[in-house]
């Protein structure tokens, strides 16, 4: 598999692979080496981060690049509202359909998943509370359905809700927790999206959206949020990562910050690269600010 799909050039990938094998960079590979440093894949001494860390960093950078295509996620919902208004105004559109009956909505999603059990992605509010309890959904899971749900932290505060979610997760109905804003949304097979017709009115029904560009955009946004989310039983950052973030905010250099948390500079920088990727930060200063905004510090 090539790392080009994750943003590396051919020269950068060839150099990174050679460094992993214990090789070194030639003078002609200066630009590739600088590029790897900027990406956080090698340190100042040209020591590469481990492959798992490198792939994770590249995945998160790619997800953030997709996310930055939107100045704010609200633009997506503005477009949803525009399509909804177009529908209510009676203008012809094949891209959106209003579904007023919750049972019709559940049946429609269920039918799509039974016909082609590919992928079901959801930002969780609660428009479809009974979908997962139905036998067809469980059969779709058994048939290879990839089901992923992102929850807000408050959604799993209650012990009984957390236990129920853990049980679903253990059966292959995957769940993660995100600290980012959560809007109700579902995606079926990356080809159809469902969103509230009016987020402020639970009785307003749901929009079924087939607009290819919008559905693709929503799928990319979901993928980015999923990559940045954390597992049900994991805090957003572990104790060492929290120490690294504190050190990052307090010390002007990596060397001083690494000493303060008793890590090698190489290990410290690997943690920083991973955290920056998860936060979508372009600099260490921005990483500290974003960490504070998300309650990681």
Give structural notes.
By secondary structure, this protein is an alpha+beta fold. It has two domains: 74-231, Endonuclease, Chain A (2-Layer Sandwich), CATH 3.30.870; 236-297, Arc Repressor Mutant, subunit A (Orthogonal Bundle), CATH 1.10.10.10. Helix content is 50%, strand content 12%. The protein has helices at 10-20, 30-39, 51-68, 74-88, 102-115, 135-142, 159-170, 212-228, 239-250, 254-260, 265-279, 284-293, and strands at 96-99, 119-123, 146-151, 173-177, 185-188, 192-196, 206-209, 230-231. The chain has an eight-stranded mixed sheet, with helices on both faces. Strand 5 and strand 6 (192-196) form a beta hairpin. Helix 5 (102-115) packs parallel to helix 6 (135-142) and helix 9 packs across helix 12 (284-293). The longest helix is centred in the first third of the chain and has 18 residues, at 51-68. The chain is elongated, with a radius of gyration of 22 Å. The two termini are 37 Å apart. The model has no long low-confidence stretch (mean pLDDT 79). Residues 234-291 form the HTH luxR-type domain. It comes from Streptomyces roseolus. This is HTH luxR-type domain-containing protein. InterPro entries: Sig_transdc_resp-reg_C-effctor, TrmB-like, Tscrpt_reg_LuxR_C, WH-like_DNA-bd_sf.
């Amino acid at each position: 598999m090539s790392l080009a799909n994750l943003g590396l050039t051919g020269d950068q990938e060839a150099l990174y692979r050679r460094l992993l094998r214990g090789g070194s960079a030639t003078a002609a590979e200066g630009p590739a080496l600088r590029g790897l440093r900027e990406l956080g894949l090698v340190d100042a001494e040209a020591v590469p981060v481990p492959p798992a860390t490198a792939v994770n960093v590249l995945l998160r950078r790619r997800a953030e690049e997709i996310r930055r295509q939107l100045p704010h996620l609200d633009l997506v919902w503005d477009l949803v509202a525009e399509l909804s208004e177009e529908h209510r105004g009676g203008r012809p559109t094949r891209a959106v359909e209003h579904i007023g009956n919750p049972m019709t909505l559940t049946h429609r999603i269920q039918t799509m998943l039974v016909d082609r059990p590919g992928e079901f992605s959801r930002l969780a509010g609660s428009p479809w509370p009974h979908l997962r309890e139905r036998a067809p959904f469980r059969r779709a899971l058994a048939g290879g359905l990839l089901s992923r749900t992102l929850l807000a932290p408050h959604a799993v505060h209650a012990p009984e809700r957390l236990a129920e979610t853990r049980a679903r997760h253990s059966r292959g109905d995957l769940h993660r927790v995100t600290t980012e804003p959560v809007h109700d949304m579902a995606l079926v097979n990356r080809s159809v999206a469902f969103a509230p017709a009016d987020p402020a009115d639970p009785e307003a029904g749901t929009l079924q959206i087939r607009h290819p560009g919008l559905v693709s955009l929503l799928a990319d946004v979901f993928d980015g949020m999923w990559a940045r989310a954390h597992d049900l039983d994991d805090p957003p950052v572990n104790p060492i990562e929290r120490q690294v973030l504190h050190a990052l905010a307090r010390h002007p250099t990596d060397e001083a910050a690494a000493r303060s948390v008793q890590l090698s500079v190489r290990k410290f920088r690997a943690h920083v690269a991973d955290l920056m990727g998860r936060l979508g930060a372009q600099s260490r200063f921005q990483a500290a600010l974003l960490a504070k905004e998300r309650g990681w510090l």
